[in-house]
């Protein structure tokens, strides 16, 4: 009688002990397999409980299975086998998500599992799998996002913000990453750094430039020269900075975002010429000979002819980074007397 | 969109196929499996065939993952069919008069021969198609592709007809390859040639008119292009032995970038930023990829002048085939910018515009009117585009009648390349 009542716990406990034993012996693949068995038995029980009393335990399982799977995969890779445990952990957590995501008191734990799933999908390079989970979180009317624990909200916004960066959806990326930054524990500098790593390129692309002290404090100096290039209108420096950190920017997925800053650098260059001309002769400042821009670019060792500069000016005008017109015949750009260099004001170029 | 068929047929067959002869393939399939985690598409949707149009990658059934053990333990089919077309299929199609024009012996719609008939692509795979005698081994598939390549050069039939035939039969080649799970380095060249076929077709189909099916053929071709090219990338990954890259890999990888030039287009279901994250550094730094990345930058910045010049000066013929649809878009942007930002009292000479767009002056004129803009002629017959016109619109009609870029270099490259399929 007694044994029957608790028989289900056997399915949880026995493999768990086996997992611990294997872990102690350093057999991580075996440990993972036993742990997954135990976790499956646990979720089976958890599903039947009406209350969410075991949520903390479930979160421990969700966390441990991911970390264990990563280590098991390293072991598999080392012996030339296919590392597929993390993928397996992903399908297990998807099951857990299914148990939590419905109505009821367990839902509050769903975001934690979502974040563990994100970590797996980002690691495996299968981020498109995030979409269905995101949909389930964001379309649910029965549960207010704000009711999730703050820690999970920050992680969630960090990952979804990164996804928006990949898709170059800057206003959304700005919103999500800024949310993560403002709600992140101010003492966890490593996390703030991770958020800033993506938020800075997003802010730059909507015309907001960080202070140098921020870059230094969080050791994000790979952006220093890019910021400097934007301030100076130095196209060569922008290209140089992109080349210098190319691999890093490509891996993190911000390369294309930074590359697009070129138009803002051109804008700054024209603005500098305008300011210098204004100091000389305020009446003629708004007329810029294209030849002057060619010369400025030559100082930067960028070879461009008048036609190419005309093309750049026409784009700047078309994208509303410069107000004015260009005269093809006389090779002059004439700037508007009012607000010749409109600010982006938090909007991406050309929007 | 990945070539779904590659790992999938073997799964679908699991219960029907019994010949177990494939410990040699188990290893390669394992490698392949390990590369699949990087695939952009849904790895789980077992029921979708390779023939399905882009299925929605959102519809994931994430809990259904196959494990590597599944892949390795079940037997792999090894085809034994010695002909381009299995005898059974040929006889049946002769009876049903289902012979393509290239397959008819002396033009007889009921009679074919082993040297003419080529196995058709099959939408639904039944147990019968699984028989080894109906599947061609690699050497026969190579011969089949060589045979199709020769047809490609034939001028006897209109291009659409040739395309249609090769389109279907190369698809069947890929189907046979995936049924046998042949994913070793030896098929890379085969895939490259098939991708090349789709790329050139992508270009040529735009120029075919007079057939109302062209736009759907163009669409279907694009679909198979993305599938074949994704399979090819997987093959590169799965067969990489050291830090080297394959001979043509850089150029074929550059297609991915060029296929994504359009602002919102994600034909392969993944943004370029994501894709860049896992492209080998050697590929990223290759000449071909640097070209594609520059073209991408010019496109994204709107730098029409450099976009057009660079394409004209540096694109390989195959790269040009993919870029071409965007050239028109960039030319329209150029006209738009000139019209928008030009000084009202300085109408823009068409002569200069023609140099800028690399179009004949007469073509510029019709292009501008296609954009809804007026042209004016002065007293000595020089033509101008008056600026600040308000009714610019993007040209709707595709300009197929003339070469978009006036370029002798590209014409030469086209002549050299189109023969080599």
UniProtKB/TrEMBL annotation, chain A:
Pfam families this protein is in?
PCI
Q: Which PROSITE patterns match?
A: PCI
InterPro entries reported for this sequence: Csn12-like, PCI_dom, WH-like_DNA-bd_sf
Species source reads Ilex paraguariensis
PANTHER family (UniProt xref): PCI DOMAIN-CONTAINING PROTEIN 2 (PTHR12732:SF0), UNCHARACTERIZED PROTEASOME COMPONENT REGION PCI-CONTAINING (PTHR12732)
Stated name of the protein: PCI domain-containing protein
Question: What range(s) does the PCI domain occupy?
Answer: 154-340
Which branch of life, at top level?
Eukaryota
> Which residue ranges run through the membrane?
none
TrEMBL record, chain B:
Superkingdom assignment:
Eukaryota
Coiled-coil segments: none
Bias (Low complexity) ranges: 18-29, 54-64
What range(s) does the SAC3/GANP/THP3 conserved domain occupy? 84-376
Q: Which InterPro entries match?
A: SAC3/GANP/THP3, SAC3/GANP/THP3_conserved
Polar residues: bias regions: 30-53
List the Gene3D superfamilies hit by this protein, alphabetically: 1.25.40.990
Q: Where is this region: Disordered?
A: 1-73
- Protein name as catalogued: SAC3/GANP/THP3 conserved domain-containing protein
